[in-house]
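Subject: sequence -> structure tokens, single chain

Hey, anyone have a minute? Need the predicted structure for the following. Not urgent.
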Amino acid sequence: MKIILITLAQSAAEAIPRPDVIVTVIVSVTAGIVSVWGWFRAELKTCQDDRKTLFDDFKKSQTAQTVLAVRVGQLETLVAQLEARIERISQKQLP
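Reply:
Had a minute. Here:
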């Protein structure tokens, strides 16, 4: 019985962490948290850059679309004017 109690006491004493183990655990956990935070900030920066690039590309495509719409409008006006001229010429040629 005495040997069992001594064994249990030694096991309990070994289970209590020493101060250097506690410091190692705290430093390791802190390093893990800092590395995850750094990764998160890097991903956030990448996402912000991607969103800025996407917005710039969208503005460029919107500008190109506006230029094309204006050009199509000009061509539609020109076609309408040509059709009107053709109609007047054809009416003059009728007897």
